[in-house]
């Protein structure tokens, strides 16, 4: 056998090319454990996905339906595939990891529809060690300049009947919030919209999560079950149901992402979502300052019983600015008061902008320049809440005025859509805000798709059924729901969760309070949420007197919101989750528990060599008496230690580890 032939054979085997059939192509992950297999039949393109030799997704169709020219799936011709390998590092300005290794193999499979039109489409596939991603690319071509997509028939024919953790919706108008449903794939109802990420647990404890990355100028995707299999379902343009996407070539779909591992913590650690997004084009990022923020709407606009006049005024904001300045809280939110916005509007409340709004001005009782100047003097940044319908018609004028006032960013709320038009609006907001050195916090919005790499001024998104619901939900948000969020929604990226409630009660004593809401789960559970939940703008949403002098508040003051490294140390779906995150030389470790008391062991070997000092905040022995009680201990440790952690029902534990 000649050396040239040997080299060629080795290349084909490494990249999984089936040399016996032109229309069969396989792509393996760098470690060889994940395999994407593509084959082209006369009727349709099909793909399979296997992990460690086990088939997870059986023959699944890839077929696009266009208003002009019908479907793109039958009688296709596959041209020569193009393979490549990538092994490079990139940095994230904001994220759970500072330096990311992007290691993957890629194949571009050109597909041509020869029936007269000669339309060409590229199926681009990437295989990572922790997942598979693919998307449709529409290159420039002389016979095809634009398209109107009526359906994207991307199928996921999952093998067997794994347990599914997902959100189900009846329509596309949604804030993407709800309680997760858990049932087998067989039991899952047909024709319901499944939000993403959706998590699938196989009987052998292999985990698969489906979501999307780099959602830009395209419709958001759901999953629907039809005839036992799952298919993509795109959000339609407003006011009709037929048209999903309108585009001019060149164009591409978002990446369809399959996170896969037999260690569920690997799905949380994965950086595939950001790796599938474009690097930022912003040259100067020095103005980006992630941090924590006040948010007095959540606590019910609480003010002290004093001479302060409550309302949309300087004194109300000064009270919270002074609190932030005293306690190293980087931002204060200017919202309004009592449901009335800080800007002129004839809308009846925060959720309705009415027929008139002017976000370049303030109501007569508020001087925004005075608020911003005072906050700057105190070392606190100002960001504002705003309804998107009030903002968008004045986008450039608003951002110009915000920059002039000295505002640092904003929460853009009540978006409640993910059709192509809304997706483009959100990117326009991000792009324009970046030009004015403003960060964005999207609320009432769909999941993140990794755009924080391209637009690092995207600090966080809501899209979670979070602690705001404790203001009106009879049963309150449970520790089990927190874990559902950690194992599903967290896979997509940052989640704004209204953290910081410091009034924990036993579940049987919980009552809805619109002002000073109660919490289920211990004080340590809440502290751990600052580590477990990823967000670059965590809230300290309670009022000042709820925090100052309270046990555990010192940890809330110290904990960062962006990280250099993330590791999942312990993870049992629905039971317990321990995440370690590093900032500089310091490690922060958070553990959240469900309602079952348990003891776990946390191996500190990830610390490596050296001596360390650990600050340990743990559930007190009397959680049934007062779940706000905690113990704080300082202990010398090394990487050889294994720490025993006792967790109360709904409990938690946090550590801050400092190199000595």
From TrEMBL:
Residues 27-279 form the Glycosyl-hydrolase 97 N-terminal domain. Pfam families: GH97_C, GH97_N, Glyco_hydro_97. Residues 297-463 form the Glycosyl-hydrolase 97 catalytic domain. Its EC number is 3.2.1.20. Residues 1-21 form the signal peptide. Keywords: Calcium, Glycosidase, Hydrolase, Signal. One of its GO terms (molecular function) is alpha-1,4-glucosidase activity. Residues 562-657 form the Glycosyl-hydrolase 97 C-terminal oligomerisation domain. Gene3D superfamilies: 2.70.98.10, Aldolase class I (3.20.20.70), Golgi alpha-mannosidase II (2.60.40.1180). Its cofactor is Ca(2+). Monomer. This is Alpha-glucosidase.
């Amino acid at each position: 056998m000649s050396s040239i032939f040997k080299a060629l054979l080795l290349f084909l085997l490494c990249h999984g090319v089936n040399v016996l059939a032109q229309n069969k192509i396989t792509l393996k992950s760098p470690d060889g454990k994940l395999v994407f297999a593509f084959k082209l039949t006369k009727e349709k393109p099909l793909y399979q996905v296997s992990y460690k030799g086990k088939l997870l997704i059986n023959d699944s169709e890839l077929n696009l339906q266009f208003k002009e020219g019908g479907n793109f799936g039958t009688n296709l011709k596959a041209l020569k595939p193009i393979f490549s390998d990538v092994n490079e590092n990139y940095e994230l300005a904001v994220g759970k990891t500072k330096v990311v290794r992007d290691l993957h193999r890629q194949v571009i499979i050109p597909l041509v529809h020869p029936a007269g039109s000669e339309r060409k489409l590229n199926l681009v596939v990437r295989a990572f060690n922790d997942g598979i991603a693919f998307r449709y690319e529409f290159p420039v071509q002389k016979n095809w300049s634009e398209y109107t997509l009526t359906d994207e028939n991307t199928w996921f024919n999952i093998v067997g009947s794994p347990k599914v953790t997902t959100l189900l919706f009846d329509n596309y108008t949604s804030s993407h919030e709800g309680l997760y449903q858990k049932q087998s794939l067989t039991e899952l109802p047909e024709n319901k919209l499944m939000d993403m990420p959706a998590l699938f647990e196989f009987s052998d404890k292999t985990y698969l999560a489906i979501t999307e990355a780099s959602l830009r100028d395209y419709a958001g995707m759901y999953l629907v079950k039809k005839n036992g299999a799952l298919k993509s379902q795109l959000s339609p343009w407003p006011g009709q149901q037929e048209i999903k996407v309108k585009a001019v070539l060149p164009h591409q779909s978002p990446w369809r992402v399959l996170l896969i591992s037999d260690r569920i913590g690997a799905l949380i650690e994965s950086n595939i979502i950001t790796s599938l997004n474009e690097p930022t084009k912003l040259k100067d990022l020095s103005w980006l300052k992630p941090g924590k923020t006040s948010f007095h709407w959540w606590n019910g606009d609480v003010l002290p019983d004093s001479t302060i006049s409550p309302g949309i005024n300087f004194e109300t904001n000064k009270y919270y600015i002074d609190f932030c300045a005293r306690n190293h809280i980087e931002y204060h939110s200017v919202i309004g008061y009592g449901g009335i916005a800080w800007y002129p509007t004839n809308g009846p409340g925060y959720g309705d902008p009415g027929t008139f709004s002017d976000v370049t001005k303030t109501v007569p009782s508020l001087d925004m320049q005075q608020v911003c100047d005072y906050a700057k003097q105190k070392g606190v940044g100002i960001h504002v809440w705003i309804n998107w319908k009030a903002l968008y018609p004045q986008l450039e004028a608003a951002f110009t005025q915000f920059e002039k006032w000295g505002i640092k960013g904003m929460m853009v709320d009540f978006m409640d859509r993910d059709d192509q038009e809304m997706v483009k609006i959100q990117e326009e907001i991000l792009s324009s805000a970046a030009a004015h050195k403003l960060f964005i916090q999207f609320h009432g919005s769909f999941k993140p798709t990794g755009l924080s790499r391209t637009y690092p001024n995207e600090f966080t998104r809501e899209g979670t059924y979070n602690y705001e619901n404790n203001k009106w939900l009879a049963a309150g948000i449970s520790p089990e729901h927190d874990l559902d969020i950690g194992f599903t929604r967290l896979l997509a990226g940052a989640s704004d969760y209204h953290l910081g409630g410091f009034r924990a009660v036993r579940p049987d004593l919980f009552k809805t309070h619109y002002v000073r809401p109660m919490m289920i789960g211990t004080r340590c559970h809440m502290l751990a949420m600052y580590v477990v939940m990823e967000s670059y703008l965590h809230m300290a949403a309670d009022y000042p007197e709820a925090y100052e002098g309270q046990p555990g508040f010192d940890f809330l003051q110290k904990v960062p919101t962006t990280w250099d490294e993330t590791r999942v140390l312990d993870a049992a779906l629905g039971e317990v989750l321990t995440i370690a995150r590093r900032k500089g030389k310091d490690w922060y470790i958070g553990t959240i528990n469900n309602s079952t008391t348990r003891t776990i062991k946390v191996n500190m070997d990830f610390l490596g060599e050296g001596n360390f000092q650990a600050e340990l905040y743990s559930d007190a022995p009397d959680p049934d008496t007062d779940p706000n009680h905690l113990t704080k201990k300082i202990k010398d440790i090394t990487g050889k230690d294994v720490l025993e952690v006792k967790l109360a029902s709904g409990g938690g534990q946090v550590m801050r580890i400092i190199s000595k």
